[in-house]
Here is the input.
Amino acid sequence: MHIKTISMKYYDKLIFELSRPGRKGYELPADNFGTDGMADIPADLKRTEPLDLPEVSELDVVRHYTNLSNKNFGVDTGFYPLGSCTMKYNPKINEEVAIMPEFSAVHPLQPAESAQGALELYYNLQQALSNIAGLAEFTLNPYAGAHGELTGLMVMKHYHRSRGDEKRTKVIVPNSAHGTNPASAMVAGFQVVEVKSKPNGSIDVEDLKPLLDDTVAGIMMTNPNTLGMFETEIVEIAKLVHDAGGLLYYDGANLNPLLGKVRPGDMGFDIMHINLHKTFSTPHGGGGPGSGPVGVAEHLVEFLPNPRVRKNEEGKFYVDFGKDSLGSVSTFLGNFGVMMKAYAYILTLGKENLKNVGPLATLNANYIKESLKDDYLLPIEGVCKHEMVFDGLKDKSTGVTTLNVAKRLLDYGFHAPTIYFPLLFHESMMIEPTETESLETLDEFIDVMHKVAKEAHETPDEVKNAPLTTLVRKLDETGAAKNPILTYKALKNA
Ligand SMILES: *Cc1c(COP(=O)(O)O)cnc(C)c1O
Here is the structure.
């Protein structure tokens, strides 16, 4: 494939090199500093060489970052059907709430008596998530989904250890799982055992049975599974795993279609994480900040990480440290700003509207699935939940791949779906529309997907060379991952 790398000159000269010697965008109040413009700093600590920073005016900076932000793609600029990531609209009221100084200015070392409001919010969110999940208690400490997985697996480990059951060293993970599942199990010190999926994408119970012995600590699953299909045999699976002495871990990244309808606790799961930044609306393109609360069933509550927020008999909130806890997984209580957004989102929707999220996300996904299956290969028929996976184009005779289709979508102003995940198919294309998209947007997307399928047949080279209209064309993605150039100075020296 012809890969066009970014022209160094283009980035270096046209976009990034704005510095002019002596140009400044700030002025410091003179009376705070000595005559040489420096505070009263001991001579040996003073900088002897000027700091090597770009010298730019305020306007240069404003234009630079505004122009950069305009070149970015986000949920606020267009449809973002990135499967598994739940790129729903993040209501702006959440941001307003999260920056309220009454909350954002609270210091984590402040005495609990002086932070009752913040602790109450924290406590209420723990309760709300417990109700939504059907589990006994939640910790909000972990910073992301993967961090929640690790925390949950540490709970699993402590549970078995507390019973003197040290030989349980294996965690079963389906071959369709998100990569973080086996990775977290490894980091938690478990050995990963893979269980196969049936042709319809659900766990192969017959393959699972012989794996279940007294060395199994538990299984990690998600439901609906990675293909967006509900695991109808979950009750039987839960019984099998429990009978073998194992625990069930639920990857809550796919909780969106079940909100208020089906509870992981009721399905038999003992431990789960929720990606607050996905299901409960915090902007999460670009990697953060996130929050991955972990919920557990009654018999595991004592192992949750410290610190915890509790309420005493007088209704006062306090920070508690459990003695049987697995220890700490975070500094203080976690990413409070994300929790505020999640809490605002839950209260804004309310109990009844929260129950509409799943059905609408499911309706949108099925509408897309049924509309595209003539042009795109649908390996698994039937009603999906909030997302679906196609195995590339139905007609692959012209050699147009899933990557080509994804890049061509950029030309038409849509973000690409998740591609080449799950690994069950060669040309996976995972589409998640979320509940917040209108019928008009879905129709536009469907039109464009049909158009691209037609182009793939009639003018395949155009699709293979896409994107043709974006600022940068085909990137060397492997190079970008292996040798990332993260600053413009590194680019200059590269
Ligand atoms: C996003 C995701 C994760 C990991 O969550 P992060 O918050 O990105 O760490 C785990 N499992 C699934 C299915 C996901 O989609």
